[in-house]
Amino acid sequence: MGATSAPPRKANPDGRMPLGQHLRELRKRIMLAGAGIVVGAIGGWILYPLLFEQIAAPVNHVGGDLNFTTVGQAFDLQIQVALLLGVFLSCPWWIAQLWMFVTPGLTRSERLYSMAFAGAGALLFVGGGALAWWVLPHAVEMLASFTPEGGANLFTAREYFAFFTKVILFFGVAFLLPEAMVGLNFLGVVRAATFLQAWRWAVVAAFAFTAIANPLPDVWSMIIMGGSLSALFFLAVGVCFLHDRGADRRKATATAETAADE
Hints:
Layout: H1 8-11, H2 19-46, H3 48-61, E1 65-67, H4 73-89, H5 91-102, H6 108-144, E2 154-156, H7 157-174, H8 177-186, H9 192-197, H10 199-213, H11 219-261
C-alpha cells in the first residue's frame, strides 16, 4: 500500500504560510468580518428607533434638542447608528475571525478554544461599551450644567453621535486588550512573568487612557473606569500564569518521557 499523505497540520505544525497565502487569508477574514457587521447592521436598522431614543435620552433629560442641519442628515445618522449596533451585535463573529487569522491551521480542539476566546472577547467588548454607556448620560448632564442662564442646549445630531460613538468604541476596544494579552501568551509570544513585570506601566497606561477618553471631568468616574481596566489586566495575567504552569508541566513530562526512551 502507498504511504498516505500527512494532514496539513502535521506537515506544518507551526501554522505558518507563505506571505501571499497570508495576505489572502487576511482578505478572507476581513471580508467575513465585514459581512457579519453588515448582517448585524440590518438588525441595527430595525432597532434604530429604540436605540436612537436611548441615545437621545440624556439630551432630553437636560431639556436640549438634537438638530439635523441638512436634509439627508437624519438618514445618514440612521445608517451610522445601525452600523454601530451591527458592530456590537456581530462582535462574537468578527472577534472569532480576528483570532482565526492570528492562529491559522487550527485543529478541531483548537477551534473550540477560538470559540471560547470569541465569546470572552464579545463579553469584554460589550462590557466596555456598557460601562461607557453608563457614564455618558452623567457626562451630558454635567457638561450641560455649564450652560449659562438664558442659553439653550442645541446639540448638532452629527457631532453628538460622533461624541457618543467615540467614547463607546474606545472603551469597547480597550476592554479587548486583556484578551490580546492572553492570546499572545497562548501563542507562546509573551509569558505571564513578562506581563507582570510591566504592571506599573499597565496601571499608569490604564488611568492615562481613562483620563483622555473619559468624558466626565470628575475623579470618581476615572477611578472606576481606570480601576476596571487595571483589574482586567491582572485577571489576564492570572490566566496567563495558569496557562504557563500547564505548558511547563506538559513540557517537563515530554522531556522526561524522551529521556526515559533514550
